[in-house]
Each structure stands twice: as C-alpha cells, then as structure tokens.
TrEMBL record:
Domain of life: Bacteria
UniProt xrefs under InterPro entries: DUF1501, TAT_signal
Membrane spanning stretches: none
PANTHER family, alphabetized: BLL7424 PROTEIN, DUF1501 DOMAIN-CONTAINING PROTEIN
Pfam families membership: DUF1501 (PF07394)
UniProt name for this protein: PF07394 family protein
Organism of provenance: Caballeronia fortuita
Length: 282
C-alpha cells in the first residue's frame, strides 16, 4: 500500500463519529509487504458478538435477552439461522459480493476477562499464561494500518450505544472498500476486526452485557472467500461465566493473514502451528 492508498484508508475512517460519541484513532505501523496490506480494526472494550452476528432462529436468544434481542424482522438475514445487526447494512454489499467472511466463536482457551490482559494476549499472540514484550506484528514483515474504535464496553444502556457504534463501523468499512476498489488496491488488502473478548450471553439489570469469551469477527477484502466460518453460538452450552465458548483460536486468524502475506513459517512468529482458515483465494 503506497502513501496515496494509505491516505485513502485514513480518509475512509477520518471525520467525526459524533453520532456514536466516539472517535477513530488512526496510526500506521509495520513495513512494506510484497503481497498485500493488512488493516486491523480494534473494537475496543469487548464487542457484543451475539447482537452483531445473531443466532436469529434460536428461541433462547430472546429468553436470555428480553430487552436487548434484535427483532427478527429488523435483522439482516445471512442464512436461515444467522443474521446481522441492522446497523451493519452498509456491509451487505460486501457480503453479497462474497468479499466478507464472518468467523464465529473466536477467542482463546481459559479467557481472561481483564481488558488490559486480554489486549496483551491478542497483541502478542501469546498463551494466557505467557507474557511477552514483543507484539506479533513486530515479528512480521507486513504493512499494517491500525485503527481503533472505542466504546464497546457496554455494561449499561447497550441497545442505542451499540447500534451507533456498529453503524459507524459499517459506514467506514464500506467507504474504505469503495475507495480501495477505486484505487485498485482492494484485491491485495485484508481488513480484520479484533476485540478484547465477547460479552456475556445474558443481559444484565442495567440493560447491558458483561465481559464474555468467544466472539465473531469480520475479515474483508477482494481476495476473501466470503461466508460463515468458525463455530456458531450454542446458547445451551455457555462457559462457566455465562459467555460463548471459544471454538476458533484467534491465532488461526493471524496464521491465515500471515500465509496470505507470504510468510511461509507462521509458527516461528506465533510460537506454534495454527491451521489457517480456508477463507482466502490467495
């Protein structure tokens, strides 16, 4: 990604996010990659995956979330069992073009529900009982644009806040896609979301959700093989703290990215071998 293309990325995410009372923080890190560029979008605070990618056919969803559940008639249908939050409508063009992969059940074993520690684990690609000073991107010759959207720690009054945050995310991702298609860089670009953790399945008394475990994440790009991946949520099989169990180690996402960026030995970067997901056409 050259400077003109980077400015296109920054421009897509720049400007006011006043409707969500949040702002995107934009920084650039890493060095040039001969294969493609990576845009990491951090949903800081712990995004509520269950109201982002909705198990719309599961009646337990409405039982566990009597006030937060998204009505079926408002949700954006992906298949007979799965839908997106209505605020994510700008992403449906990428979904229909099969350029949006949704990976469900992402996280790590024995999840730590501390924001600080969980971000460390994601940033260093380490195990929960392992402490590293270097980030996984410090070990990778990959060009990265790093973007953060704050405000996803929705312990109270979640419904309106979360809708505004997802709307801001979707509008900016759709704008980014349009600009990179126009510049000719979309085919060589990957966009991937990350977050501290998912959130508890049962809503709390404050109209929000507490820290959870497994979550859904988006991977977009012109070389993405769009569709649903990972482990769909089973609302009858929650972890001991009421979160969605983890079915896909987050380092499998990193392994997928590294292979696409020409890193033949991802295990030397991630500390172990993780099977890439079959969601790229490169």
């Amino acid at each position: 990604m050259n400077r003109r293309q980077f400015l296109s990325v920054a421009g897509a995410f720049a400007g006011s996010a006043a409707s969500a009372n949040e702002a995107f923080a934009i920084a650039r890190a890493g060095s040039a990659s001969a294969i493609q560029s990576l845009v990491l979008v951090d949903l800081e605070g712990g995004n509520d995956a269950l109201n982002t990618v909705i198990p719309i056919a599961d009646p337990r969803y409405r039982v566990l979330r009597p006030t937060l559940a998204i009505p079926k008639e408002r949700a954006l249908t992906l298949d007979e069992k799965t839908a997106l939050h209505p605020s994510l409508a700008p992403l449906m063009s990428a979904w229909r073009a099969k350029e949006l992969a949704i990976v469900q059940g992402v996280g790590y074993d024995a999840p730590n529900r501390s924001h600080y520690r969980s971000r460390q684990i994601w940033d260093t690609a380490s195990h929960v009982d392992e402490y590293r000073a270097d980030g996984w991107l410090d070990r990778v010759d990959v060009e990265v644009t790093h973007i953060a959207l704050h405000g996803f720690d929705t312990h109270e009054a979640q419904s309106r806040r979360h809708a505004a945050l997802l709307s801001a995310l979707a509008e900016r991702l759709a704008s980014l896609r349009a600009r990179l298609i126009a510049s000719g860089a979309w085919r060589k670009t990957l966009v991937m979301t990350r977050s501290d953790f998912g959130r508890a399945v049962r809503e709390n008394i404050a109209g929000g959700t507490d820290h959870g475990a497994g979550a859904a994440h988006f991977v977009m790009g012109g070389s993405v093989r769009g569709g649903l991946y990972g482990t769909p949520p089973r609302l009858d099989r929650l972890d001991a703290d009421g979160g969605l169990p983890v079915g896909v180690d987050f380092r499998r996402l990193y392994a997928t990215v590294l292979r696409a960026c020409g890193q033949s030995d991802a295990s030397s970067i991630l500390g172990a071998r993780f099977e890439p997901l079959p969601m790229l056409r490169v």
